[in-house]
Design brief:
mainly beta; 6-stranded mixed barrel; 4-stranded antiparallel sheet; 20 strands; 24% strand; elongated
Length: 442
């Protein structure tokens, strides 16, 4: 059917321009006090003067070469063997107590979240359950996290010079949202920026999957979502005959699963929380735990299935037209049923982008009327293109609420018919207003 569209909507503005910074300041190797002494990859001040360009190639990072000291401008962070080992004792089986995966070798597959955990995590970003430790950041009191990828760190710090020096690739854009959503099993959740690198490795972007603009650079034989340290700790992955003692930097005299620097891996940590960041989710000083973590710079495609009919949110006829109608339709694998939740900068509120056209889910004409059509329309910054996700208990489903009207994404008339129109409607508790995002091909 032919559908009119988009009357009265503004043309999309030109993209925001981001000027990369030209100075680097205040970078120093952080002091670790935590359960897993994180491997930091800060450039030494003598190697990078503030604002200076360098023509020399980046330092070579050895892959489990059996030495704790990293040559060149990168320095491995020293730490306490005792604290790191204690974190390993606290970790328990993969995923936490009673969370091991039936039929899978421990550590070699992503650990599942328990029922109801991670309900606050956005559904359209790479999300995994990983072990978290704590550290004392360079800036006292800073709320931040460390992830084991130096390129992510310097992209988050908007330092294009360093990204170029490390040959990080064009995928590490400065305008991406380098934050994580971390959630405890209790439901306590926080969204925290990346400002550091670690723990253990500095080239293990384990959250990246097929098709990512930032593909996994190291340990590519591990499944997506499994940190190298987790596999080394539980399975002896990357075992070397004489791994290096974490504290002394000397050979330990025994074989063991090692990090990329050949150091004996003593716990499975895949993310590090600053002490103040840990407090935001109710963790005690240096308390370590398994968390559900979403990586907001790593979007994934989802289908969005409605509860009453089990059909998918769809753009009619795979149309590329502005104003094409959103409908429900049986799952067919089409790109007009693949959606991404794009953070707006406000927790829990997203633009919802369909992947065949790149347009946004939109309430036509910024209407506040009951029954107003929901369409696709180019991004324009309008509040009628912003949607709040409200979890429906611990079911994994959400109400999707239009922010300009406060009304719900709804299948008109509770219809189960193929092609039934998507509209906005006041909340009524109906399953035709309950939507379950499901990741495609993670």
């Amino acid at each position: 059917m032919a559908l009119a569209g988009g009357a009265g909507e503004a043309e999309p503005p030109s993209p925001t321009h981001f000027d990369p910074p030209t100075t680097v300041s205040g970078l120093r190797i952080r002091k670790l006090v935590l359960a897993v002494l994180t491997l930091t990859t800060l450039l030494a001040p003598e190697a990078i003067a503030a604002g200076a360009q360098t023509s020399s190639p980046p330092a070579t990072i050895p892959q489990a070469a059996g030495a704790a000291q990293v040559p060149g401008a990168l320095q491995a962070t020293p730490g306490s063997e005792q604290q790191a080992a204690e974190a390993g004792r606290q970790a328990g089986p993969p995923g936490g107590a009673n969370r091991a995966i039936a039929g899978e070798g421990p550590g070699t597959a992503p650990s599942p979240a328990p029922p109801g955990a991670g309900a606050a995590n956005p559904p359209s970003f790479a999300t995994f359950r990983v072990y978290a430790t704590q550290y004392d950041p360079n800036t006292p009191g800073s709320v931040e996290v460390a992830v084991p990828d130096k390129c992510t760190k310097f992209a988050a710090l908007k330092n294009q010079t360093v990204l170029n020096d490390f040959r990080c690739g064009a995928g590490y854009r400065l305008d991406l949202d380098y934050r994580v959503v971390v959630t405890r099993d209790s439901g306590q959740s926080a969204t925290i920026p990346v400002k550091e690198v670690g723990p253990w490795n500095i080239d293990d972007n384990y959250w990246a999957g097929p098709g990512s603009a930032r593909p996994r650079r190291s340990f590519t034989d591990l499944p997506r979502g499994v940190p190298e340290a987790q596999a080394a700790f539980y399975n002896g992955f990357n075992t070397v005959p004489n791994c290096t003692n974490l504290s002394t930097g000397q050979p330990s005299g025994k074989p063991g699963g090692a990090d990329q620097f050949g150091r004996c891996v003593l716990n499975p940590a895949g993310i590090d929380l600053s002490i103040e960041a840990a407090k935001q989710i109710g963790l005690g000083n240096l308390e370590n735990t398994w968390l559900t973590v979403s990586f907001l710079w790593e979007p994934v495609d989802t289908t969005i299935r409605v509860g009453h009919s089990s059909k998918n949110l769809d753009v009619n006829f795979v149309s590329l037209d502005r104003g094409a109608q959103a409908i429900q339709w049986p799952a067919n694998g089409g790109r007009n049923q693949a959606w991404r939740f794009i953070p707006t900068g406000t927790a829990g509120i997203y633009n919802i982008q369909v992947q065949h056209s790149g347009m946004m889910l939109d309430v036509e004409g910024v209407s506040t009327a009951d029954g107003a059509r929901v369409i696709q329309w180019p991004a324009n910054g309008g509040i009628n293109q912003t949607w709040r996700l409200v979890p429906v208990g611990s079911t994994g489903s959400f109400n999707i609420v239009a922010q300009h009207s406060g009304k719900m994404l709804d299948v008109g008339g509770v219809s189960t018919a193929d092609g039934a129109l998507i509209i906005q409607w006041p909340a009524n508790g109906g399953t035709n207003q309950q939507w379950r995002p499901t990741v495609v091909g993670l």
